[in-house]
Amino acid sequence: MSLLGPDTLFQRVAFVFPGQGSQYVGMGRAIYERSSAARAVFERADEALGFALSRLCFEGPADVLEDTINAQPAILTVSIACLEALREKWRALGKIVRPLFVAGHSLGEYSALVAADALDFSDAVRLVRERGRLMKESSQERPGGMAAVIGLDDATLEEVCREASRAGVVVVSNANSPDQRVLSGEIHALLHAMELARQRGARRVACLGVSIASHSPLMQRAAQQFSEVLAGIRLREPSVPLVANITGQVLTSVEDIRRELAEQLCRPVQWTYCVTEMLNRGVSSFAEIGPGHVLSGLIRRISQDVQVITLNDQAIATLDVS
Question: Measuring CA to CA, which residue among 100, 59, 102 is closest to residue 80?
């Protein structure tokens, strides 16, 4: 595999970073073994957190890695390790690749901020671990879940949520692509909404393997507490514009970013709007950087014409630097 592919691929590129659910045991090991820049990222994460996050990424166990307080800093660390390994390879070729925009899906927004030099990595890894802790605490007080729905339009799905809300809180929490959305809410209401979605003709309805109702009103308390944490974190204006999850709009000021990060916990992720905004502003290709390949598939559903390259740890480890 060529390091950059066609030279035109990275001329008007956006860097995008994955969120929770992309973790797996063994992630990051390949670049840790092959890239000194990636190793340095893992070492900084271990030091910042005071335990061997790197070993958890490489060896598991899976149930501990999947715990949200661990999964969030682990995904962030692997994403930034991938980015630094890429930059290391680009430097070896005498190349500088500067994206037009950065964006991340939910948790991935923190990786995007680190990539844009708006947030120090050590601060970010501690911050997302606290984010995970607060989310987990909220979910223990008000248990919930999430479910993916494919094949229903916005109006129908909003009607489903209104009807199911008689049994409790349930909302559309992610607009991932024109035909894929995610519901979040209390268990009874969520199960009712899933059944209603099937009755209304959804092609697929499936529970996600999480016990947290992310991006829903159930995270309101966590959002308030996290806002206080964010007040003590140093943020800078990004060197590359960030496209925000909850509005799909470009953010460049520290105040807007701080507000986005707090409100993101209890408001929907508008990923379709994010991608569309970047396309409208001249992006012609997307590079997904981090574990997995979920965003690459979603972006192709949003625009079949756009170029997408998946730069996960396995792909980067085998990139040709010639």
Answer: 102
Contact call for residues 175 and 269 (beta carbons, < 8 A): yes
Q: What are phi and psi of 121, to 5 degrees?
A: -60, -45
Active-site residue 239, yes or no?
no
- What is the crossing angle of helices 271-280 and 294-302, to 10°? 60
Residues 22, 54, 79, 106: which is the catalytic one? 106
Residue type, 20: Q
Residue 297, H or E segment: helix 294-302
CA angle 254, 115, 211 (to 5 degrees): 85
Res 8 pLDDT > 90:
no
pLDDT value at 82 more than 90 = yes
Residue 319 confidence (pLDDT): 84
The structure tokens 């661990």 sit at 70
- In angstroms, the CA 314 to CA 291 distance is 8
Calpha distance 70→92 (Å, rounded): 33
More confident residue, 134 or 210: 134
For residue 221, pLDDT over 50 is answered with yes
Query: Is 106 an active-site residue?
Result: yes
DSSP code string of 211-233:
SS-TTSGGGHHHHHHHHHHHHTS
Q: How far apart are CA 95 and CA 93, in angstroms?
A: 5
Q: Which of 111, 184, 215, 303 is catalytic?
A: 215
Cα–Cα distance for residue pair 193/60, rounded to 1 Å? 34
Is 318 exposed, middle or buried, given 0-12, 13-18 or 19+ CB atoms closer than 10 A? exposed
Instruction: Identify residue 284 by its one-letter amino acid code.
Output: S
